[in-house]
Every structure is written in structure tokens, then in C-alpha cells.
Amino acid sequence: MFRGVRAQGSLFGSSTLTAPWSLLFVDGAPLTLCTVLEGSGWILPEGHPPEYLTAGETLILRGPAPFSFVDEIGTAAEPIECGKECATPDQGGTRHRLGWHDGPHGGPDGATTLVTGAYPVQGEIGGRLLDTVPDILRVAPDGTADAVRTLLAAEVAVDAPGQQIVLDRLLDWMLVCSLREWFDRPGGEPPAWYSAHRDPVVGQALRLLHDDPAAPWTVSSMADRAGVSRATLAKRFADLVGEPPLTYLTRWRMMIAADLMREREAATLAEIAREVGYSDAFGFSAAFKRIRGVNPTEFRRALVELPDADNLPERVAASSGR
To answer: Where does the record place the HTH araC/xylS-type domain (predicted)?
Structure first.
């Protein structure tokens, strides 16, 4: 789940700001991480109350609605639109561009340094992680993420080859640490697939399925690898994950297949079938329709007609009158 969500170079922004300022983020990213390295400011999410951020605090926002970062509510600053192609305006002391920093210490006294990472979450696997995240997730300035913030602050102040790659990966690291801390918080309700990874038996079985989904798995072969009986694995897996091991495997394979159809337009259904553990396209098509409600051909056609649609299988089924 985490592997499919990554910051990408053109979507990274660093801003060192002196009041008044107003940045309007309009790129519509499905997920955006905002962390204040120095100073403070207000995040104004569309449709939600304002969120005040001080140094060391992080906010994760679900898109695609735009949001603003301002020095104060009701600021007199004119909004500056920031997105994939954000320019470098000088307006009221506010400047913003990709990978830019203002001096060795981040800027003048009293300045605020904001780092944002936009995540173009795509496909079935990334979407499953996105479904577990609330519209706004606040991360406290402590825990593992705090160490990543220290590295971010140091890297933002360095203009060196490879900086963009380092910043992207640091943002990925912070996102994963932030989500783990949120899942593990007292009284939290993490998704079943996350909690189950902590179980020594079911976690091992899940890693096997994720690492090699095309293998000819049976409950017995998974149980042998996990070092328990078939009955023990079947019961613990169903109790912790919410469905039997082979049902989970089939759903996982169909998620991978759906993403492969998005990413590789030239691949045949037979090629995709083999990559997810089916010897022929017929058996794969039957399994895909059973799990997703539409056959692979209909799904692939909808990718062309509705490339940005949410709940694509349901949209295809509705358009087909089912």
C-alpha cells in the first residue's frame, strides 16, 4: 500500500515567507503533506475549519479540493496560485518556487518556511491506502516524523545536485511515518490489512502473497511457510483480515491487474493474466468479473472513456445497465 504512494519531483514546493502572504494550492493532488519547518501560519482547507500550524507540525490533506496557506485569517495579501508549474513571484515578501530557499538559515528573522509534497495517488492499490485517510490528518511535532523533519530542514537549505530526489524521498518517509503513527495512536482504528501485519502468522502470510502474488498459493503452502497448521492459518487469517486467505489473494491479484491495465495499455489480457497467476485469459477474465463486477475488456474500455473516474468498476457497471 505504501509503496504505491510517492512524491514526484515537479510536485515538490518549498516556500520561505514573510507576512503578509497567501498561497493557494490548486494542483488538485489526491493527497498533500504540509509541514512547517520555521514560523507558523494557517491552512485553510475548502469545506473545513482553519488549521493553525506552528514549527514542527504537519498536516496531511485529502484532495482534490484546493487549500490556502496564509499568515493570518483575513490576510490582506493577494493569493498566489501554486501548483505543478508554480512561478516565482515577489509579492509582499512572499516568494514560492520549486526547490527554492532563501539563504543559509531559511530566511530573515520571523520568516515561515513551509514544505509541501503532493502525492498523485493513482490506481487501485494507492486508492486503497487513500481510503483509510481522513480529510485532514494532523501530525504532532514528535515521534519518528520529527527526525525526518530535521533532515528536511537541512536539505531545503542546500542547493546541490540530487536535491529534488532527496527531498522527494524524505517526504515519502515522512508520509509513511505519519500514517503509521496515526494508525498506531491510542484508541485508533487502523485498517485490518495494517493491523494483521503485526501478527507473526498472518503477517508472514500477507508478506508472501504481496511479494509473489502470481505463485500457485494454497492455504497449505502458506501455512507451511508460516510454520503453522492449515486450520490455524485459515482461522487466524479470517479473524484478523476479515476474509479467507485465498479470497484475499484473488482480490489482491485483481487490484494488481487493474493497475497493470492502467499502466500498460499495450499489454494483452493474457500477459496480465500470467503476471497475476493465471495461465489463461479466460480464467483471469472470469475471476476479474466475479470480483469487480465487470470484465477486463469493459474495464479497459472505461479507462479510455473515463480515465479520472472514481469507483471505475461501479461506473462501468452502471453505464452497462447492470
So the answer is: 203-302
The 3-class SS string of 18-82 reads CCCCEEEECCCCCEEEEEEEECEEEEEECCCCCEEEECCCEEEEECCCCEEEECCCCCCCCCEEE
Q: Phi and psi at residue 206, in whole multiples of 5°?
A: -60, -40
Of 123-137, 179-193, 198-212, give the range with the top mean pLDDT: 198-212
Domain end among 123, 156, 183: 183
Cα distance between residue 178 and residue 194, in whole Å: 14
Q: Which three cell numbers stand for residue 253?
A: 491479484
Structural domain tally of the chain?
Answer: 2
Q: Which domain holds residue 288?
A: 196-319
Identify the CATH number of the domain in which residue 117 sits: 2.60.120.10
- The CA-based angle 54-60-62, given to 5 degrees, is 140
* Whether 274 and 208 share a structural domain: yes
Asked whether residue 11 falls in the same domain as residue 112, the answer is yes
Query: pLDDT tens digits, residue range 221-233?
Result: 999 999 999 999 9
Answer yes or no: do 113 and 221 share one domain: no
Gap between the Cα atoms of 242 and 76, Å rounded: 52
- Give the strand order in the sheet containing 22-25: 51-54, 40-45, 67-70, 22-25, 80-82
Q: In what order do the strands lie in the sheet with 31-38?
A: 12-17, 112-119, 31-38, 58-62, 136-139
Where is the domain boundary, 128, 154, 183? 183
Which tens digits make up the pLDDT trace of 128-159? 777 788 899 888 777 777 788 888 878 777 76
Can you say how many angstroms the Cα of residue 92 is from the centroid of all Cα atoms in its chain?
A: 34
DSSP 197: T
- Look up the pTM and report it: 0.73
